[in-house]
Design brief:
Blueprint: E1 2-6, E2 10-11, H1 24-35, E3 43-47, E4 52-56, H2 58-66, E5 71-78, H3 81-90, H4 101-112, H5 122-129, H6 133-145, E6 151-155, E7 161-165, H7 172-180, H8 184-229, E8 234-239, H9 267-271, E9 279-289, H10 294-303, E10 307-317, E11 333-341, E12 356-360, H11 369-378, E13 384-387, E14 396-399, H12 421-432
Parallel strand pairs: 2-4, 3-5, 8-9, 8-13, 10-12, 13-14
Antiparallel strand pairs: 1-5, 3-4, 6-7, 9-11, 10-11
Length: about 450
Amino acid sequence: MAEALSIDFLRRDGGTQPRAALDPATVANYAEAIRSGAAFPPVIVFYDGTDHWLADGFHRVAAHEEAEFEEILADIRPGTRREAVLFACGANAAHGLPRSNEDKRRAALLLLGDPEWTQWSDREIARRCAVSDRFINSLRATLTANGSQSERTYVTRHGSVAKMDTAAIGKHAQAVATIRSMPVDALYQVVSERHRERQDLKRVRRDEREVALAERIADGNAALAEAGAAGKRYGVLLADPEWRYEPWSRDTGMDRAADNHYPTTPTSEIRKRPVAEIAADDAVLFLWATVPMLPDAFAVIADWGFSYKSHFIWVKRRSGEARGPGYWNTNEHELLLVATRGNPPAPAPGTQWPSVVIAPVGRHSEKPERIYELIEAYFPTLPKIELNARARRPGWEVWGAEAPDQLPDAGKTVHHGRPTAAEIDVYEAEMATVDLPALPIRGQA
């Protein structure tokens, strides 16, 4: 069964990509289709208990990244990196962007260059790579005829010693051919080293961004304080803080952290923001919070001078049978906490919205349009401000590092209105038709 998987979890550095290169035009076309709402088949991923190895769907993943989506529909199968490599060698034979002859050759060389797989018959390797027996026979004969006396030993990831032909190293064309014919374990060793180098580079860039963020936050906090000192007050505040969810290790886990999408801030700093200085004496705070950050969100509410009252639940509608990640359950929702200070007016009886809002998952950190309609319906005349805004909306002031200057095109705004009971009934009926088998455990809770 397919489920939604964070793109940050995908490993693409284990030699599981047999194509010579991604096609930029295909990625661009896919990205445009994704932005238009097109649904693509799930990518194929092998999970070994620690890592999710992408085996099929590299163009689709790149397109989702270009379209600024943080999740992708994935068919997650139990298996190792080597099993992912085997699957990848025959992928795209009957779907997706047609393979070039070089793609087929590279897939075959992955198996022919492996100490274990090269022992297989031409027919078996051809079956795995979805090519003809003659193609494999010819390629094996060419490799044998071009055998070199120049060899180098290396240690595989399993601890055994193997040999690699290095005669062509230093000559561009021959070096490319050598790399393509490297045994999978040797290629994995080289790629892993490159992966560590990229992680180190990300760490440096992240530190630089963190310094820049600290400066922007200081400027932003000063702007809030100045607005408060100037008498600026808001009766409605909507906030979507850049929560920092700490991984098990900031040395290794940061490769998949939200920091790679946008700068995040420790809760201790978010709590210090002078939001109370711009809040009216009678005001309402709507605060977005993910499930892991719920305790932090309550602390922020208190430090900003508000008291928790209630919450709304955004149920994330996903494509097909897609499901969100999680340990105790699959995470299908996000919380919008409601807090007040003073005595702002509650909605009149009979005008309240349902506590559940069902809306599709959009781009990274994008929130449903319906939430703005909810707030505007409750408080049509109160002055409003959105903190950490990523879009500007008529009637709202905005604050944040990504706050835009331009208003959206009014012609592109779609008004959904108050949710109806029938919508919830439809969603429940849809869920009743979805088969939910037991999911593999991907970590310790």
